[in-house]
Amino acid sequence: MPVGPFITDFLCRERGLVIELDGGQHAESVSDTMRTEFLRSEGLTVMRFWNHDVLGNMDGVLSVILAKLDGLPSWSRRAHPQPLPQAGGE
């Protein structure tokens, strides 16, 4: 799902959650850090999982995601770090 200049692996817009799956090529990636920082600056929560964890422990990964979702308000109630001005405002 596109967000700004990036394509995310999964985006739940309703909850503002991005899930990224990382393989071995992501071990020391500066671009992943920049990507995560950009997504967070857009008010999104980013979760990263290794591919082998998803393939070998899907139930564990889903449990972590569900626990995170329990703590996230719906997107419409989240404060964006750069909110739009109110109607009639500057």
UniProtKB/TrEMBL annotation:
- InterPro entries (UniProt xref): DUF559, Endonuclease_DUF559_bact, Restrct_endonuc-II-like
Q: Where is the DUF559 domain?
A: 2-69
- Which Pfam family name is an example for this entry? DUF559
Q: Which superkingdom is the protein from?
A: Bacteria
Full protein name: DUF559 domain-containing protein
Organism annotation: Sphingomonas rosea
